User: Fold these one by one.
Assistant:
Number 1:
Amino acid sequence: MKIIEYEDKYLEDVKDLLVELEEYIVSIDKDNLDQLHPEYRDEMAILDLEEVKNNHGKCYVALDNHKAVGLIMGCIFPYDEYDYLDYKCPKIGEITELIVSKNVRGEGIGNMLMNKMEEYFKSLGCEYILVDVFAYNENAIKFYDRHGYHTRMYTNIKKIGD
């Protein structure tokens, strides 16, 4: 297994990985709010990679026999003027995507990808790393817990009407 920086020749693999993740998220969404839009496969990877490019980010892929079987994307987003009013605003890297194909889970690929992104963020002077995790994704929550991450914020939702 090899971890490399993203190259355009892996775009179709990245699209497949993003669809695999979204299908999983849709399957565990107890609120039935997530969807796999017909344009998701063609558009999401482009949007994610553009976000990485525009926000001091990186995308790394895990290769197995020249095929991307995992990926991680991360960015360093700027603060806005409101943030400075009530927050110390340390330099923070944010993991925006982490996907390991179900066919190769349990082989340490997620660990390798996390280590690579953490090294990148450290090299840029980040003090913290932030990751949003879908509340129903218990496997991801356990994974991040094992890597020393902890919950800082909660988002609550309530359906009204009907």
Number 2:
Amino acid sequence: MNEIIRNTQSSVANTSLDPQDWSEFRALAHLMLDETIDGIANVRARPVWRPIPDGVRAAFRADVPREASDLAEVYREFSEHVAPYATGNLHPGFMGWVHGGGTAVGMLAEMLAAGLNANLGGRDHMPIEVERQIVDWMRRLFLFPESASGIFVTGTSMANLMAVLVARTTALGTLARQHGIGNDGALLTAYTSQAAHGCISRAMDIAGLGTDALRKIAVDADHRIDVAALRAQIAVDREVGFKPFLVVASAGTVDIGAIDDLRAVAELCREEGLWFHVDGAFGALAILSPELAPLLGGIELADSIALDFHKWGQVPYDAGFLLVRDGEQHRQAFAQPAAYLSREARGLAAGAVWPCDLGPDLSRGFRALKTWFTLKTFGTDRLGAAVARSCALAKYLETRVLAEPRLELLAGVNLNIVCFRYRSGDAVNREIVADIQESGIAAPSSTMLDGKFAIRAAIVNHRTEEADIDALVAAVLEFGGRRSGGVIEVDAPPLAAH
């Protein structure tokens, strides 16, 4: 018997995935860290974005790796073929989409979280207490009651979906989770503005209510939801037998950063008995700035708020968040008894409400740690100042556009998003955006406003300065002149000097 045991042990003796030589591993790990820090510190020395060469892309069509590779060789491949062709949102010239720039502090926290390898689905351990502390901080910032609950998710798209599910369960009762939405569920209607993010429609789809059940209300001249039209549509739906249950207001619309009249929407929802949810993907964190927080008046009346710390909070991806006023309603939408999730009075399985009771995930990473490090290290005052600074830079870009006859401003600047164009046709402006991106000077994006193609600059990165705005404007004028003049140079210009 002992011989059998020894033979069995020898056959599985070397399956550990730990390094064989910890000193060698440590040296390479320090090199990785040093070079990553250098990359952040010297981010201005490289293009914002660069196209992926065909050969590099083809290299990632290789077969499944059956044999082991040297870690140094794997890192070399990453350094040469992955890192140079990332999205570019670390760069101060990245203004395409509402992507945060991250911080070196957040990067270190992510490394520490990976070292712990904690599962935040539940049980009694400190990583969950870190998440609970951030829930409490958010509750205080948004003036929610102590009974409020919150949870980290991948991003606001998921948080918005979860808010729809909480509102649906509240409207239909918890039995709907067992029996389905039934006839009552088929009559539910929700409301948002025509300027709302597309993930709201997608949430209605995934929730089983259907996109047709979402009424997209017209916006006013400031691109905010028309509250009078909203009220009228709710009345019409009630009259014909539908059951309104949810209004989703925007705190920072995707196209131009407009903030709905949250107080007026809150009052309407209270009168009509509707769930009031705020999609505050990036705009909700204006609460960190005393200068901008008044724009969010009424957000404290919401039943739920979705936001992303990885945008204006500058936390590395991903770090979405959902805050719910009534923690019990939140729990009733997701909690599910199971023997393997039973709670005990003591030991590792102790605790009452676990994060898995508040969302669909049983396995969850330690997203809270990088957020905790960011909030603790910089403080809300400094983060709020960075938020206000990005809005000031947007105003600076607005003045540059208004002062330049060759440029046209397409919408007033609300927060940090500027939509403008070169005074030419849509086709020329579409090419300008691609030209600038491929040049590496900057990375704007685009949208359509009132039937016109717009160059969209979303200023989120805490590293962005006036010089980066100037470089963008100069690039638009240069490429616009080439395109509209009919003389196109194939070679991209050298990187703008800062």
Number 3:
Amino acid sequence: MNGRIEKLKTYLQQTPADCFLNHALALEYIKEGDEATARTHFEINLANDPAYVATYYHLGKLLERAGENEKALKIYEQGMAQAKAAKDNHSYSELQGAYEELAY
């Protein structure tokens, strides 16, 4: 297992609900090819803080790769709503683009 994963897991023991750490760990698991574990960490973020906008794009893409297109579309929609509420136009545009690419 790579050293970054071990380091992030150590940090998460101290603050398990930290969205940034869970997100970073999920991305590391994707790099390692362990998308099931990555998905778990993205889902932890959604449960802990639905306003953590960064989670939606990456979880949506993961769901797309798994062939779960309907779930991916719902995640993109939820992410767009969160990005709009946060006035995060950049994230909104990215999520909208991913949504439209998949939906049409």
